[in-house]
Write a structure and sequence with these properties.
The complex is a heterodimer. By secondary structure, chain A is an alpha+beta fold. Chain A is about 20% helix and about 40% strand. Chain A folds into two domains: about 25-255, Lipoprotein localisation LolA/LolB/LppX (outer membrane lipoprotein receptor (LolB), chain A); about 270-365, Phosphorylase Kinase, domain 1 (2-Layer Sandwich). Chain B is mainly α. Helix content of chain B is about 75%, strand content about 0%. Classes of the chains: A alpha+beta, B mainly alpha.
Chain lengths: ~375, ~190
């Protein structure tokens, strides 16, 4: 009975599964275990290089195509957050002028010579009080409901998908392995499926699906160490156009707020250090600043591995002795501990054990 | 042999179209390989894989084949008078048990009540002592207050840190940019 149904199921599987592609390192090592003789088609190194190459193609597509994507961010236990995300390449000034002969002063800053500076990007959170972000070249303007508009000098919009993953993947290769796992169907398109795994297994892992034709991202899952979904970004609609979205052509530099210049902090010598960090994580910033809400003075370090940022705060402990505080706020882990009259805090999208490890590596030099 | 397996592996991976599917029909070993490859692929992709071990299924199928067919007729369910009598006696014994339980419960409730009534009765008689309770209440309130305040303060602090972290993450890329020389002329034309 079981034997008779098996081959017919197989034939069905021929059509379904021939869509798939299995070419990961693990696949081949596992296959070699399963079949006692080593019939490995490709050496694993080649496969990994391919995954990195494809990811570079993704970054090229994300940075150079005209597209509009609707996407939804899901987090277990909270409301889905929908966004609209547009990206485009502004045509040369000549084209812009012929299109808008009648419109008032020309946005001269819109078309500088460097190619990155004529890209435009737009991100709008669709539910609740709107938060719109517009990027023109390297200038990012924020329009939020409860604040006056402001602008920052930035190369990208800090959106739901970690920007280095899809824009500058070279920045994450030190900390993460990228593996091409196979093919599947996402957002109605044939998609390539990647896994992004931290080299020492101390950070969340990611599953990324990109359109196999255009290489634009379609779906991103952030997974805990146990493999549970922590956060999900799903593109629900993706439109690629030849020319830039009409809204971008109406943009005028004069309407955008002034860029706020932030002076890079001087070299601070803090009296504490972090003796060892997870693989690929680096200290990218340190300073002393006041918290916006409470006005408390904190000593601060920012760590980054290219994909996630981790903040470390050191401040005077309150009068009431406190136990450790461990909170997961959305997908961020918050760990706070009082040691020697100081409150140490680690915040970031990292698993709690890793936050604890970083916490333990903070060395306070006695004054 | 290994050549054929390699072909199959490539075919399953979608990398080769040069594989004769008809080979599979006759070759049990290749069939097993085929299934293993797909199972591995699915597991790695994180697709929902229901691992049905075919060897177990086969074993069950074999076992079912070996199972002798039951030919003996079932016992008829005709009731005799004697059966009824037995069941009646059974019922009566059940009644007895239930009655016993009920009696125990009544006893229990009675004793419970008597315990309860004694302090209950004394409470209204000792009138002036009742004045103690509001005092103790206000005391507990004063103890609770600093705790709550601490909790509120802690929450405020946590919130402040979380907000600051978000801001720092947002600003991080700015610092990357300002160090690049090409951005400077971009900001100046205004």
């Amino acid at each position: 009975m079981g034997l008779r149904t098996f081959p017919s199921g197989l034939l069905r599987a021929v059509f379904v599964c021939s869509l798939y592609l299995t070419s990961s390192t693990f696949a081949f090592s596992a296959v070699s275990q399963a079949s006692s003789d080593n019939s490995i088609a490709k050496p694993p190194a080649v496969v990994e290089a391919n995954a990195q190459e494809v990811l570079l193609k993704v970054s090229h597509a994300v940075n150079t195509l005209n597209y509009e994507a609707s996407l939804v961010v899901f987090r277990p236990g909270s409301e889905p957050v929908p966004y609209i995300w547009r990206h485009g390449i502004l045509p040369d000034m000549a084209v812009t002028e012929s299109d808008h002969v009648n419109s008032s002063p020309k946005p001269k800053t819109l078309a500088p010579s460097t190619p990155t500076n004529n890209t435009v990007e737009y991100l709008n959170s669709l539910n609740g009080p709107g938060a719109q972000v517009v990027r023109v070249g390297n200038k990012v303007s924020f329009f939020e409901a409860d604040k006056p508009a402001f602008a920052l000098q930035q190369s990208h919009i800090h959106g739901p998908i970690p920007h280095n993953l899809i824009r500058n993947p070279a920045a994450i290769f030190a900390a993460y392995d990228v593996v091409l796992v196979g093919k599947s169907r996402v957002t109605g398109k044939a998609a390539l499926h990647f896994r992004v795994l931290s080299k020492d297994g101390s950070r969340y892992s990611y599953a990324l699906w990109v359109d196999s034709e255009t290489y634009l991202p379609l779906k991103l899952n952030t997974l805990t160490l146990k493999g549970e979904v922590l956060e999900q970004v799903q593109v629900t609609n993706l439109v690629i156009t030849d020319s830039v979205h009409a809204d971008f052509l109406k943009l005028e530099a004069q309407q955008l707020p002034q860029v706020r210049h932030i002076n890079p902090p001087k070299e601070f010598a803090l009296k504490w250090s972090i003796t060892s960090l997870p693989v690929g994580m680096k200290e990218v910033k340190r300073d002393i600043h006041r918290l916006a809400i409470t006005g408390e003075l904190v000593e601060y370090k920012l760590l980054s591995d290219g994909l996630v940022d981790v903040s470390i705060y050191l401040q005077k402990a309150g009068t009431v002795p406190q136990d450790d505080v461990l909170i997961r706020n959305q997908s961020e882990t918050f760990l706070s501990r009082v040691r020697d009259g100081l409150q140490l805090t680690v915040v970031g999208k990292i698993p709690a054990p890793t936050a604890n490890k970083i916490m333990e590596m903070i060395a306070l030099s006695s004054t | 042999m290994s050549d054929r397996q390699e072909n199959l592996s490539a075919f399953v991976d979608g990398e080769s179209a040069q594989f004769d599917i008809d080979q599979l029909q006759n070759d049990k070993e290749l069939q097993a390989k085929w299934q293993n490859y797909h199972l591995l692929g699915d597991t790695l992709r994180g697709d929902a894989v229901m691992v049905a071990d075919t060897s177990i299924l086969d074993a069950i199928a074999d076992a079912l084949d070996d199972e002798p067919t039951i030919l003996a007729p079932r016992r008829s369910k005709r009731k005799t008078v004697w059966d009824n009598v037995v069941s009646l006696s059974k019922q009566s014994s059940q009644f007895a048990v239930a009655a016993g339980v009920a009696a125990v419960m009544i006893l229990g409730v009675q004793s419970y009540n008597t315990e309860q009534t004694q302090p209950f009765m004394t409470a209204p008689t000792s009138g002036p002592q009742g004045g103690l309770s509001p005092v103790s209440l206000s005391q507990s309130r004063t103890i609770e207050n600093p705790n709550r305040q601490a909790v509120v303060e802690q929450r405020k602090r946590i919130n402040a840190l979380l907000v600051d972290h978000k801001q720092q993450v947002r600003l991080q890329a700015v610092l990357d940019e300002t160090t690049e020389p090409e951005t400077v002329p971009e900001g100046k034309p205004k």
